Amino acid sequence: MKRLRLVITHYILTKWGRRWKNRAALEQWQEKRIRLHVEKVRQRSKFYRELWAGIPSKEWRSFPVIGKPEMMENFDQLNTAGITKEQAFAEAYEAENSRNFKPTLQGVTVGLSSGTSGNRGIFLVGEEEQAAWTGTVLAKLLPGGLWKRASIAFFLRANSNLYESVKQGRLQFRYFDLLEPLPRLLTRMKEYQPDIWIAPPSMLRLLAEAQQSGEMNLHPRRIIAVAEVLDPLDRQQIEQTFGQKVHQAYQCTEGFLGATCRYGTLHLNEDIVHIEKEILDEKSRRFVPIVTDFSRSVQPSVRYRLNDILTEAAEPCPCGSLFTAIERIEGRCDDILYLPHTADGTHVTVFPDFVTRAVLAASADIEHYRVIQHSLTELEISYCTRTGTDQGTEQQITSELTRLFARLSCIPPQLTFTAYSFVPGTVKLRRVERGWKP
Questions:
Q1: How far is it, in rounded angstroms, from Cα 419 to Cα 329?
Q2: Residue 175 CA to chain centroid, in angstroms?
Q3: In terms of C-beta distances under 8 Å and separation of at least 24 residues, what long-range contacts does 47-51 make, across chains too?
């Protein structure tokens, strides 16, 4: 009962209880919460206590920025539950291998991050934090309210007690393992007939294709994309197939960072996290988020630098939210391409979105694509079209990319074209990927 009360409390707080007159009032409220949070973390986490030695809590913006390597290297001293990295990895790998995601360590849920960049991380969530997360997620993503019946289908490579906690009262929840064969997943979907679908965009595309081919005839009330970048091509195909907006949840190891409003605009969850912006390109409004999550204390994230590229919206969202609106999550910093400048050979930054726009501008017949940079001078493009791969499309893609490289004053790389192939499950889909280190 205590847990259910916590869920409902956070649902109500998120839905109706937290209101600010303006952005300044929101930021003042955040400041108070962060200072209190920092004091608690300083007392409970040996790592942070030593890292912040000599810096008062009111000057928390002067704390050193950390990233995934520092968090994993100091995991034993950073978390406040007394759980070692060895224990956590053993628990998480056992769950992945057995596909039984129920067990906990000392009442703490343990999970593995998906490891897009090749280095898998661990996340810990305490019981109270789990209840707070559940109430917040339901308030931000659930259409129709907490007391209306809904059936949720959740597709991911690994389940968790955290996700299962969404099952409340009239809400049904079923986990769909991405490692299962697609025909089995489609059969389960047809039997379950869920209202709300939560899945990576690559899986949502497969569901859309099954709907188009007649293998499936389902009508979801809401579709929510998670875990992968929502590419414009995927968004268009999914929305056209099901006749509705694709919503997004920006959730990662470091917290529940964003969710879409009723207009489909992604807003940062600034009622539970503070985001500093490390500007990548001021003109295009691109930045890397530095996260301080003041809602979690078992595995604290204070001034934690993510590896994501976000583009801030140019105009306020019509929903009126004070929370920062995001035009697009573009990808990872690891997937920024680099090409030599025509004048002096210095590296020119090519953001993933530049490449995406060029490929999609080449032909309206392109259904799927991937672009992988293998070296400073090699670019592999795999794609498929509605009519099958053809020489004309290759020429059009080459032409669009050549124009892009000329505009950026880059030496064009050698282009290699291959057949498109990707199966959702073991890895995330990255439409644009850098496969080498400069």
A1: 27
A2: 18
A3: 47/74, 47/77, 47/78, 48/78, 48/300, 48/302, 50/77
Which whole-number Å values give the CA distances from 34 to 103, 292, 297, 333, 362, in the listed order? 31, 8, 12, 27, 47
Q: How far apart are CA 435 and CA 426, in angstroms?
A: 18
Q: Any idea of the CA torsion for 146, 169, 207, 241, to the nearest 10 degrees?
A: -30
Q: Are 328 and 423 in contact (CB under 8 A)?
A: no
Global pTM value: 0.86
CA distances to 19, 306, 343, 351, 438 from 334, in Å: 37, 11, 25, 10, 10
Domain map of the chain by residue range?
2-331, 336-434
Reading the block at residue 238, the tokens are: 């999914």
> Which of the four pLDDT bands, split at 50, 70 and 90, describes residue 106?
confident
pLDDT in tens, 114-155: 554 446 678 888 888 888 888 888 888 888 777 788 899 999
Domain 336-434, CATH 2.60.120 — does that match? no
pLDDT of 20-48, one tens digit each? 999 999 999 999 999 999 999 999 999 99
Over residues 155-179, the pLDDT tens digits come to 987 655 555 555 666 778 888 988 8
The CATH H-level (homologous superfamily) assignment of domain 2-331 is ANL, N-terminal domain (3.40.50.12780)
Here the tokens at position 142 are 């659930």
**Dihedral angle sign, alpha carbons of residues 185, 141, 266, 67:** negative
Integer-rounded Cα Rg, in Å, for the chain is 22
Report how far apart, in Å, the C-alpha atoms of 362 and of each of 97, 150, 242, 402, 403 are: 43, 41, 25, 11, 11
83: left (phi over 0), alpha (psi -120 to 50) or beta: beta
The confidence score (pLDDT) of residue 104 equals 76
Query: CA 110 to CA 239: how far, in whole Å?
Result: 34
Task: Tell me which residue has tokens 């920025």.
Answer: 65
